[in-house]
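[job 4471] stage=fold_predict status=RUNNING
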Amino acid sequence: MNPALPRSPAGPYNPWMVAVMVALAPLMEVLDTTIANVSLPHIAGSLGVSQSESTWVLTSYLVSNSIILPISGWLANVVGRKRFFQISTALFIASSVLCATSTSLTMLVVARALQGLGGGGLAPVAQAMMADSFVPEKRPQVFALFGFTVIVAPATGPVLGGWLTDSFSWHWIFLINLPVGLIALTLTSIFVTEPLLLRQERKALLGGGGFKLDYVGLAMVAIGFAALQMFLDKYELDDGFSSTFIIAAFAIAIATLSFLILWEWQHEHPVVNVRLLFTRNFGICCIVSFMISFCFLSSTQLLPQLAQTLLGYTSQTAGFSLALGGMVTLCFMPISAFITGRFVQPRYLMAGGLIQMGVALISDSHFSPYMSFDQLTMARVLQVFAMPFIFVPMGASSFVGVNPKLFGDAAALSNQMRNIGGSMGISFATNMLTWRSQFHHARLAEAINPFRPLPPGVPLAQLDQMVSFQASFVSYLDVFHILGILALVVWPIALFLKAPAPQPAAPQLAEPLPAQPRAA
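[job 4471] inference complete, writing structure tokens
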């Protein structure tokens, strides 16, 4: 074990080997956030439910995931980091099998909720383990590995989900988690250790009668984030604020989350450490992470949706339009890791990446209805080209100034900001498409002269279809333009990041470090 890194879960083993092992489980979990999207029509038909009812397969997962994410760092401290990681992995595997064997929508929704609970703790704990295993100078390299899970996996999900559904059945989008999960669980059980320092901190936290469970904070997290996710996910489907359900969800989310911030600020052992948001680098990185997810995940949904609904692509072909972008991102991850901090300061890379992403999204507002598959694919490449140069520096900078004891809390909070950003981005894009499509349809219809004869062979119904097509297509261009503007607006904030300081000396433990055991 490296004595300079007493919180490292690698123990006597190579930290890179352990980093790869702990990355397997969150890769599986992040993939599941998008893999079911293209399979919903098949799931609805198989279970005999409507298309709108089948969306609960996605909503149930997102709601339970949003509840567990912000408290995963706190749970890891209370339960034990390795133990919590293994429990989360095991629950995710078991619920995946339950999803695949579901015979009714109710059974599938419950299984997906359990899957979200298990998956919510994987990414934050893995990120905290990686940060604890490497000195700040080497964190860009390890966060390039973690970046694969949160950038490439969401784009790969629709492609893999479409292929598995078309080639086999929708059950396999869940069964594929079984071998990956079992491998991850076995490897982490053998090679990941619970450091002595963390065991001492947990003993001090729970012992002596000083620990008080934050029941109020737990309740506010469950109610507030569940209501927020329901509001975002169902806003467009339930006609926005004309729905009593949407108004109630919005009011509950605002009230409970506002109270949560005030309550957790003064609590001795908060389940969500909101004070971390006022740490300079961490707060800035959370804002950037929110906006990147807002733009990235919404564009990930928009591009294949445009290809399917207006350009006539199949779901699998539309998914493949994202594939090259994922490969380019993967190729540039190690390059970004190599130059971050060594040749270019993280803040300049992040600012440049945000500018490039904004320009690429604005250029997408010049799409043509006659664009080819190659043009669509290259547009996606330009959208995500800069992602490694944003995410890797962000991962290297976000923990600067954060107490190592709070790495788990920080990782949980940053992942929650990423999830909320993605959910809000998708909800925003969906609603903007509807509103702008109605606007353009009305403007185009105004230009039609009812007293002018129609062109020969063009019936009125076909003319209406042409107007609807043009209105829908232009609305996509509008949304791409807005997303690009948002990316360009946020880039200056990255310049306020502080560079990582030299690694301080290792803290003294209460007792000498013995040989590390293999299991907690």
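[job 4471] summary: Confidence is low (pLDDT under 50) at residues 503-520.
[job 4471] exit 0
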